[in-house]
Automatic annotation (TrEMBL):
Pfam families: fn3_6, Inhibitor_I9, Peptidase_S8. Keywords: Glycoprotein, Hydrolase, Protease, Secreted, Serine protease, Signal. The keyword Glycoprotein applies. It is found in: Secreted. Residues 140-628 form the Peptidase S8/S53 domain. This is Subtilisin-like protease SBT2.4. Belongs to the peptidase S8 family. The keyword Metal-binding does not apply. Residues 705-799 form the Subtilisin-like protease fibronectin type-III domain. Residues 51-114 form the Inhibitor I9 domain. InterPro entries: Peptidase_S8/S53_dom, Peptidase_S8/S53_dom_sf, Peptidase_S8_Asp-AS, Peptidase_S8_His-AS, Peptidase_S8_Ser-AS, Peptidase_S8_subtilisin-rel, Peptidases_S8_3, S8pro/Inhibitor_I9. Residues 1-18 form the signal peptide. It comes from Hevea brasiliensis.
Length: 805
């Protein structure tokens, strides 16, 4: 979900009846099309199409024989990677379906929410991976990335078919379709955009759609366009906003193709539409699936790993598709991740070393810093302008709104005296409206335009403390001052430069100020920093947050202040209406960075499986910043930082240069994930059979034995031995030395301590953990495998040692 000065959240709005109807997702027994035939026939073959029709007919027959005809509405049949359907029914009808023959699982739809010019350089792509792939003219060629999101802006230059370097050939393994509709003509699918579909049955079942909820793949929000261009937008696209040039934008894999699956609308988002889009994307043949959307909350009555959403991701992985999802924007609290499962990569967000410093300058030479992509007020020769507090510019008499939002926050132009504020820089104060999320920057800008402000400053209020501000492109000069300490400097200067009468009314204003240039980027400072909003681990297995032996998030990527494509419709954010680019923050923005890098890896290594790509990303990531020190994470307060742990950044910041040549990889396939599920504590094998259709024939001795590129043990008692298996994906034999940094309270021993491994060879490593001191919090360490050909493989350790014996 994107975060900037305003927060966008998509929630479900369910109409209430005598018995409230909801959308339910139903999983059925029987193999879906992708897995029903061991000969792995083409999904569009006659045999596969016949099987798909049988599944669809079985769904209809089940509903007709279980529920009264006319009392339900089937929304989708899922046939490709999961056998099931979505239906709009009452809770009592859902109970009937649970007992029907052939039904494995019934889950209520939990709703769905939405979780650059510089990041290619920050990650070293132009001089690194792009060079190996023939430059930005070829980086990502032949890879199709699927985006399940809010759609796409087909007119944006980031998605144009460049006549100087056209997309002339089809991608042989992909067969999508171009659905048309309002603002999405057939020409929208142009070779760069190879397919575009939309899914709205869930949305239409639970909400009354508005004119902005276009029933076509067009993006009325902007989020989907932002995500798609970050991953695969064309290279060298000029970023111009409010007439100012911010540089050139490029996606991580600028020659990758884009397949659009619109499933979230301005009015509503449902998981039903999301999983229907996922099912179709796998059927079409995408290589990578991008999920910057996710559930509103953990599942109520099943394991996090076994929600319908996570089961769909499991079967996407089984079909060979690399799945990347946003970790969530509920940080910095612990166990807030919404990416749970080991078969999908959950991405956390961080900053880069680029920022856009703004400033407010006073007549006495003082200056305070702030946020806002704003033109300066001193163009045209006049440097300083009158500075007036909004409360001192309220009309002297008459009928007008007198709420704090109007008088303090500048939300209501009818409350302020035009003669006082015209040509002035007006101090608007963060107050109750912003605190309760009912006031907007858009309203301040509208007031400034209506009354002729020279500029505005939204300053912190001591009654509410510091606030979080992200730079937004203002169409008038403006700045946000989020720190109370800076606001007090402003207040002190202002009070020294005005005169008040005995009643407290201002009689003379001599305060002068100017807003400095806020649009020019500055580079430097510590980076990356794990973003405050980025959701944290540890991972958990149920709604009660019982801990899981899986590391989440998996990896860190830039997600703070990312320039990328936008939709000028901007149905949910009037501040960005009319803009073709937006500077946004969120794990939604971090996710497509990993997606694009995965596309580059897949292009160079077309036979690598999803778990191989995931391992390559993880073991080569770095946990050190540009100062050579451990990456810091932002805390709750402004300017509060702490040394990050694996639960903040996963394995570390993605490192594409090393990820394309990781040396060793850890692989896990579908059967391994089933064995993992079957080894979970207190699990009933029937539960696994119901959700996945698979028997628990070979459970792991402990969940931590899943062959992940990390080890997480949520309750270590006494000692435990786990095993990892590595494969040499290099072209030469290599010898590795094994070393370990033991987490506090433990001793870790490795066997062997060194090994030689041939190309495509494998090696088992035994890892023995022993508790030396019980702790009530996790401690962290790592295993480092150092190769003779300079490969370095890092394996994060996250251990909670609960007892010595």
């Amino acid at each position: 979900m994107a975060r900037h000065a305003l927060i966008l959240v998509f929630v479900i709005c369910v109409a209430c009846f005598a018995e409230e109807r909801s959308v339910y997702l139903v999983l059925m027994e029987g193999e879906p099309v992708a897995f029903h035939d061991p000969r792995k026939l083409e999904l569009n073959s006659e045999i596969s199409q016949a099987h798909a029709k049988r599944l669809l007919d079985s769904h209809d027959q089940l509903l007709q024989t279980t529920l009264e005809i006319g009392s339900y509405r089937k929304l989708y049949s899922f046939k490709h990677i999961v056998n099931g359907f979505a239906v709009h029914i009452t809770p009592s009808q859902a109970e009937k379906l649970k007992g029907a023959p052939g039904v494995k699982m019934v889950e209520r739809d939990r709703g769905a929410k939405l979780m650059t010019t510089y990041t290619p350089q920050f990650l070293g792509l132009p001089q690194g991976v792009w060079t190996q792939e023939g430059g930005d003219k070829n980086a990502g060629e032949g890879i199709v990335i699927g985006f399940v999101d809010t759609g796409i802006n087909p007119l944006h230059p980031s998605f144009a078919n460049d006549p100087l370097n056209p997309f002339t050939s089809n991608v042989s393994h992909f067969s999508g379709a171009c659905e048309t509709g309002p603002r999405f003509p057939p020409s929208s699918c142009n070779g760069k955009i190879v397919s575009a579909r939309f899914f709205s049955a869930g949305a239409q079942a639970v909400a009354t759609l508005t004119p902005m909820d276009f029933l076509s793949p067009v993006d009325a929000v902007g989020h989907g366009s932002h995500v798609a261009s970050t991953a695969a937008g064309n290279a060298g696209v000029p970023v111009v906003t409010n007439g100012f040039y911010y540089g050139q934008a490029s996606g991580m894999a600028p020659r990758a193709r884009i397949a659009v699956y619109k499933a979230v609308y301005p009015t509503v988002g449902t998981m039903t539409d999301v999983v229907a889009a996922m099912d179709q994307a796998i059927m079409d043949g995408v290589d990578i699936l991008t999920l910057s959307v996710g559930p509103d909350e953990p599942p109520e009555d099943t394991l996090t790993f076994l929600s319908v959403f996570d089961v769909f991701m499991l079967f996407a992985q089984r079909a060979g598709v690399f799945v990347v999802q946003a970790a969530g924007n509920n940080g910095p609290a612990l166990s807030t991740v919404v990416s749970y499962s080991p078969w999908a990569v959950g991405v956390a967000a961080c900053s880069t070393d680029r920022n856009f410093p703004g400033s407010l300058l006073f007549g006495n030479g003082q200056k305070v810093g702030g946020e806002g992509l704003s033109a300066p007020t001193f163009r045209g020769g006049l440097f300083l302008h009158k500075l007036v507090l909004a409360q001192d510019a309220v009309k002297a008499n008459g009928t007008f709104p007198r709420s704090p939002q109007c008088i303090e926050e500048c939300q209501c132009p009818e409350s302020l005296d035009p003669n006082v504020v015209l040509g002035s820089i007006v101090i608007c104060t963060f107050s109750a409206g912003f605190y309760n999320d009912t006031s907007t920057i858009t309203s301040i800008i509208n007031t400034a335009r209506a009354l002729g402000f020279k500029g505005f400053a939204l300053v912190a209020n001591p009654n509410y403390g510091d606030f979080i501000a992200e730079p937004v492109a203002f169409s008038v000069s403006g700045i946000m001052i989020p720190k109370v300490a800076d606001a007090q400097i402003i207040s002190h200067y202002y009070e020294q430069q005005i005169h008040r009468d005995k009643r407290g009314f201002v009689t003379d204003i001599r305060a002068r100020a100017a807003i400095g240039e806020g649009r020019v980027a500055a580079f430097g400072g510590r980076a990356p920093l794990v973003s405050r909003f980025s959701s944290r681990g540890p991972d958990f297995i149920d709604i009660n947050k019982n801990l899981a032996d899986v590391l989440k998030p998996d990896i860190l990527a830039p997600g703070h202040q990312i320039w990328a494509a936008w939709s000028p419709i901007s149905a949910l954010d009037p501040l960005l209406t009319g803009y073709n680019f937006a500077l946004l923050s969120g794990t939604s923005m971090a996710t497509p960075h990993v997606v694009g890098i995965a596309a580059l890896i897949k292009q160079l290594n077309p036979l690598w499986t999803p778990s191989t790509i995931s391992s390559a990303l993880s073991t080569t990531a770095t946990k050190y910043d540009n100062y050579g020190e451990l990456v810091l994470a932002e805390g709750y307060d402004i300017n509060s930082f702490y040394p990050s742990t694996h639960f903040d950044l996963g394995a570390g910041l993605v490192n594409p240069i090393h990820a394309i040549d990781p040396g060793l990889v850890f692989t896990s396939e579908f059967e391994d994930y089933i064995s993992f599920l079957c080894s979970l504590p207190n699990i009933n094998p029937t539960t696994i059979k119901i959700a996945t259709g698979q028997q628990c024939n070979q459970p792991l001795s402990h969940p931590a034995n899943l062959n992940l590129p990390s080890v997480t043990i949520s309750a270590l008692r006494g000692s435990l031995k786990v095993q990892r298996s590595v494969k040499n994906v290099g072209s030469k034999p290599e010898t590795y030395l094994c070393s370990v940094i033991s987490p506090n309270g433990t001793i870790v021993n490795l066997s062997p301590t060194w090994f030689a491994i041939a190309p495509q060879g494998t090696q088992n490593i035994d890892i023995q953990f022993r508790v030396t001191q019980a702790r009530d919090v996790f401690s962290f360490g790592e295993i480092v495998l150092t190769g003779s050909l300079n490969h370095i493989v890092r394996i994060p350790l996250s251990i909670l040692p609960v007892s010595v014996s």
